[in-house]
Give the backbone structure.
Amino acid sequence: MLLAEVNQSEFLCTALLFSAATPLGVGLGVLISVYCQTAVALGLMAAVAAGTFIHVAAIEIIPSAFRDTSATQFAKLASLTMGFLAMSALFLVA
């Protein structure tokens, strides 16, 4: 909080919004699954969940893995590519 130069009211507002996001999302998901059991609604919920995982991987995990210099960049890229290919193959088979 001190490093970002955020005052206490801004911090509390942000913390409140952040902490309320998960319960609100769970409640919204339950309402949608109970009252709207169409394929479109369930597909939309699955797409949002998949998009969340893709976002976290693309923004947090993959860049930090490529910044680490303990392994060669080629090995990391090859592993990432093999993972994408494996998941694509699983999708095509299922």
